[in-house]
Amino acid sequence: MQRMGGMGPRGFLTDAEKANQPKITKDLLRRIVSYMLPYKVKFILVFITILISSVLGLLPAIITGRIVDQAIVPGGQLSRLVWLLLASLATLTASQLVSLLTTYLNAWISQHIIYDMKNQMYAHLQRMSHQFFTTEKQGDIITRMNTDISGVSSVISGTLQSILSNVATVVTSVIAMFTMNWLMALVGIVVIPLMILPTRSAGKSRWKLLTESQAKHDEMNQLINETLSVSGSLLTKLFTREKTEYERFEKVNGEVTKLSLKEQLSGRLFFLMMGIFTQIGPLLIYFVGGCLIMGVMDSSLFPTPLTIGAVTAMVSMVNRLYRPVESLLNISVDFTRSMALFTRIFDYFDRPIDIQSPPDAVSPPLDRAVIRYDHVAFGYSEDVQIFSDVSFEIQPGQMVAVVGPSGSGKSTLVNLLPRLYDVDAGSVSIAGVDVRKFDLTYLRSQIGVVTQDTYLFNGTIRDNLLYANPEATQEEIESACRAAAIHDFIASQPNGYDTEVGNRGLKLSGGEKQRISIARVILKDPRILILDEATSALDSISEAAIQEALSLLMKDRTSIVIAHRLSTILAADRILAINEGKIAQSGTHEELLAQEGIYRRLYETQFMKSSDFESESDQ
Ligand code: ADP
C-alpha cells in the first residue's frame, strides 16, 4: 500500500516502511499529553486506584505465608486457618473491585479523548481545501477518522493502564520481597534479565508484522471503498469487471489472512521460553530457602529465622512479578505502535489549511459588484500550468458565457471565484476587493453554484432544499421549486417534499436532481451565480421551462455560465473563449464569429450542431 511503501519479501521492512516508523520526540509526547490534560484529575484517580489495588493484590501472598506458619505448621489452628483464608479472599475481592473502578475511569477518559479528537479532526478536515479532497483517498480519511482515532482508546485504556499497573505491581512486590528476605528476593529476580533477550526479538518481529498488516488492511479498505461504492460498483457492472475485482480482492484478503495468522503465531516459541524461565525463579527460591532452613547455608545473616511460610510467600510473590515484567518488556512494541498511531493522526492535524479567511477579513456589500480577474496564473501542480495570464472583467448584472474545448480550464476558472483554489499569481477580486481578503463564509454565501455533477445528501427533498437556507418557509421552498420547474414532479410523489432522494440522490434522474439543485440555489439567493453546464442533464422541454427561471435568477445578478448551448451563448452579454491557458477571444457572438479563431471553430464543431432540441456535452 502506497502510504506504507511496498511490502518487502517475507516480512522484512522495506526502506519506506522503516522511514514510516515514528520518531518519538518531546514535542510528540507533549502533544499527546495535551489531550490528556483536561482529564488530569481522573488520571490521578486512576493512578491512586492502581496503587491501592496492587497493594491489596500483594496481601494474599503474605497471608499465604501466615497460613503456613501460623495455622498449618503449628497444627490444630483450624479457626485461625479459616480466618486467614477469609482475609485472603476479602483482600482479593477488594483488589478486584478497585481495579474495576480503574477500568471504568480509564474507559471514561479514553472515550472522552476520542470524542474530543474526532470533533477536532472533523472540524479540521472540513476546513481543508478542495484540493485535499480531490487528492486524498476517501478510504484514508475514513480510516483516520475511525480506526486510528478509535485506536487511541486502546492506547489509553490498554497501554497506559498496563504500564501504570505493571509498574505498581513490580515495585510493590519487589519492596515486599526485599523486606522479607533479601537473599531469596535476589535469587527470585535474578532470572528476569534472562527474559529480556527473547522478549526483544519477539517484540521486533511483532512490530514488523503489525506494520505490514496495517498496510494490507488499508489496502483492503481502499479496495472495498472503491469497488463497493455506488459509482464503483456501477462501473464494475457496466464493464463486467466482477471477476477481476473479485480476484483482486481475494488476493488482498489472502495476504491479510496470511499476515494475521503469522501475527497470531509469532512469538509462540517466545512464550514457551518465558514459561520455562518463569518456573526457574520459584525453583531457586525453594532451593535457597530450603538450604537456609535445613542449615546448609548460614542463616545468621538474617535477623529473624526463616520459616516455611516465608518461602511460600516469596514464591507466590515472585510469581506475581513475571507477568508484569513480561508485559513491561513487551510494552515497547505497543508503545511504538501507539506513537505511530498518534503520528498518523497528527499528520492530518498538521495539514495546513491553505484556504481560510485572513485575520482582518472583510465582508463588503456585493450588490452590483464588478468581478475582476487580473493577470491570473494558476496550476494544480507546480509543473503544469492551467492559466498563465488571464485578465477580464465582468460588469454588475452581466451574464458572461465561458466557452472552450474540454479540459481548457473553464471549471478551473470559475472555481477561483469562491476560492475553491487560490491563484498562483495575479488576483481575483469582487467589488475591488481581492477574494483572499474576504471573510470566506461570507464570500461563499454570496456565490451560488450549480454544477453539472449534482450532489444531493441522503435525506428527503426538503432536507436538501433547506441546506441552502434552513429558515426557508414551505411557501418559499415551493416557489423556488416552481421557478426551477420541479414542483409538479415533487408534488406528484406519494411523499411529496418528504420523498427520500436515496444515496447521493440516486433515486432521482439527472434532470430532476439538477432542477432540485437549481431550486436550492434560488433559495440561497446569492449575488453572484456560477452555472457550470447547469442545463446539460435536462431534456429540451424541462430546459425550456427552467431557462426562464434561470434568466429570472440571473437578472440583477452577475453570472458566469460555462456554456454548451447556443441559446445560452446568444443570451450572454459577453463570451470568453478560453484556449491554451489564455482568454483567446472575448466579445459578443457576432463579434467573435466575425473573427478567425477558436470561437468560430467551436461554433462550427459544437454549438451550431447543438440546436436547442438536443442535449449535448463535450465531455
Ligand atoms: P474544463 O472545465 O474546461 O473541461 P477543467 O477546468 O475541468 O476544464 O480542467 C482543466 C485542466 O485541469 C484539465 O487538464 C484537468 O485534467 C485538470 N484538472 C482539473 N481538476 C483538477 C484537479 N483537481 N487536480 C489536478 N488537475 C485538475
Q: What does this protein look like?
A:
- By secondary structure, this protein is an alpha/beta fold.
- Among the domains are: 22-179, ABC transporter transmembrane region fold, CATH 1.20.1560.10; 371-446 and 526-618, P-loop containing nucleotide triphosphate hydrolases (Rossmann fold, 3-Layer(aba) Sandwich), CATH 3.40.50.
- Helix content is 61%, strand content 9%.
- The chain contains 22 helices and 10 strands.
- The strands form 2 sheets. It has a 6-stranded mixed sheet with strand order 6-7-8-3-9-10. A 4-stranded antiparallel sheet has the order 2-1-4-5, with no helix packed on it.
- α4 runs antiparallel to α6 (138-180) and α11 (268-294) runs antiparallel to α12 (308-349).
- The protein is elongated, with a radius of gyration of 36 Å.
- The model is unreliable at 1-18 and 611-619 (pLDDT under 50).
- Bound molecules: adenosine-5'-diphosphate.
- Adenosine-5'-diphosphate (ADP) binds at residues 134, 380, 386, 404, 406-412.
- Residues 134, 380, 386, 404, 406-412 line the site of adenosine-5'-diphosphate.
Poorly predicted ranges (pLDDT <50, ≥5 residues)? 1-18, 611-619
Average pLDDT: 84
- Class per helix and strand makeup: alpha/beta
Residue share in helices?
55-70%
CATH class of the domain at 371-446 and 526-618: Alpha Beta
Give the percentage of residues in beta strands: 5-15%
